[in-house]
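User: I'm writing a tutorial on reading structure tokens. Could you give me a worked example: one chain, its sequence, then its tokens, then a sentence or two explaining what the tokens reveal?
Assistant: Sure. Here is the example chain.
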Amino acid sequence: MDRHPLTLAELTDRAEEIQAEAWGRNLPTARLAHLIAHLFTPDPPPFYDLPPAQWETLHIIQAEPGVNASEIARRREVTPRAALNAVTQLERAGLIRTELITEGQNIRACYPVEAP
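And here are its predicted structure tokens:
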């Protein structure tokens, strides 16, 4: 596929087409927006190639900075271990940072890393 910048109107039209095609496939809105942006961005940033679990986790962290892995697990309806794995991968990729909030239990708050 040839990637080229689109006008906002063209992107909106294409987004509506893709959303209509995806109707009934139960794609989360954030993931759908990610797919649309990935299709039409000439040089996508590194987070565009994230697996769905990491993408959903990053979206939650961006929406509510300071959230911890247990809350992410509840929102994603996955095990705490799965949420912690996604958080760890995002931190290794440099897309989020964590801060220790409860030392004895090793509970960490997650924050998005600001783009340079």
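What the tokens reveal: Residues 47-112 form a domain with the Arc Repressor Mutant, subunit A fold (CATH 1.10.10.10). The longest strand covers residues 96-102.
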